[in-house]
Amino acid sequence: MAATARFESRRLWPAAVLSLLATAVMLVVSQKATPALAAPLLAAASVAVIAVTARRPSVGCALLVVGAALTSGLGRNTVLPALRTSEALTILVAAGMVIRQLGKEQRYTFFDVVVVTYSVGAVMVPAGYLWVTGTSASVDAWRTILAPLQFLLIYLIFSRAQLNRPEIGEILQLAMGASVIVAIVAMAQVADVPGVRSFIETYYSGTGEASQICTSGPCRATSLLEHWSGMGAFAVLHYTLALALCAYAAINFSGRFLSTVMALNAVGAFISGTQAAIIGLGLATLVIVLHSRRIPRQLLVMIAPLAFGLLLFWNQIQLRMEQQFVQAGTGQLLSSPESLDVRQRYWNEIFVPLLEQHLWFGTGSVVPAEVPQRLVNFVDNEYLGLGFRAGLVGELLLAMMLIGVVLVGWRRRRSLDTTQHAVSGAAAAFALVLAVIGTTAEYLTFAGVAQAFWMLVGIMGGWMLAGSPSSDVVLLGSREPKAPRRRPFG
What we know:
Blueprint: H1 13-31, H2 35-55, H3 57-71, H4 85-101, E1 106-108, H5 110-133, H6 139-160, H7 165-190, H8 196-203, H9 228-248, H10 255-271, H11 275-292, H12 297-301, H13 303-312, H14 314-325, H15 338-356, H16 382-411, H17 418-437, H18 449-467, E2 474-476
Antiparallel strand pairs: 1-2
Helix pairs in contact: 1-3, 2-3, 2-4, 3-4, 3-7, 4-6, 5-6, 5-16, 6-18, 7-9, 7-10, 9-10, 9-11, 9-17, 10-13, 11-17, 16-17, 17-18
């Protein structure tokens, strides 16, 4: 009965309100506050986040879930020097967790080893290459190289927070609630609601595309994220989570809320103008239905609002389809999207031949110097990007991590807790989606998307740690002999 009882509130909603207020303050600080005013304000907020997390980790997790989603598009050097706001929030929550864990025996499972191996290995291989060869890399290249360490921190935060069922339930609701805000802003951006585009261009300009994409061709939603492809993947991830909860744990959540989350995020994926996101919606739906072996009722309920949303934004969707599938000037239909043809030409003529020269360990940097500067941002492939950084070794590490998430998520169907079913199914489904759509963009580098994905993986890792028998867990610092055998993946 415990697995199907409705969640009791743990009062994490104040953390969501604090995140909204903090986001508003960050916007003001980024534009109007002087350094003399901003420094003490940010210092006090930092101390508060660390102290609250050390005392009650669930509140820190809630702040991270909402804060990372709502500040991902603020960019670097807007509020804090050198860091994104979401990155700083991750570091602060991690610091609070470290303080809480001081003096305690640390336990880990085989799945922890898989995640740590990927995260550390994906950093050590390119860093080692740069050190051995004496090659210099730009600051931006080092940020990309070190990015897996941030994801490792998020995994460790959620897997070690010892969240109970009510807290996990509220954190999931907060995550989906934040995705609803992002989707609504995206719709307002495409619909050109007065003031929305200027607000995004002022505060959430990302890498500059937000100020241009709606003035040249069909408008592609970026919302509060840094890029339209990130918007599409973010929408797919939260659609997947809501669908999985419908399939397994609908009794713990409002069916209307889940249907709303699914419909709004599905529309958000379409108006991002990203074909990979639309493919991701279909693939995620198929995986969840197979994983749960049922078609949730909410999946049918959401068809009407989804159809209304597509009808409302059909003009922009149609323009994007014509841009991709109709050859300009001739009106001839293309067999594949124009953007994919351009990518394939760059891959075959430039990137793949260069990567073949550095096959095993890559070049250490994101893109080698031989690539013209105007084409540096056209890698648009998770595997090529990682291949340049860490070669085939990095590719194997990524494959190991994604396969590990899929296997663990699929095996958690045996759990008696329906919420574990749902979260594990969503993590496995989105890992498969990432493996497929990663051929068209480096989605694990998009702010907002990566944080949300590692939240799900971290929650799943925490369940494995709590539910593993003593023979499957190793204690760091313990004098007890280690078990001679451990079952794979917890």
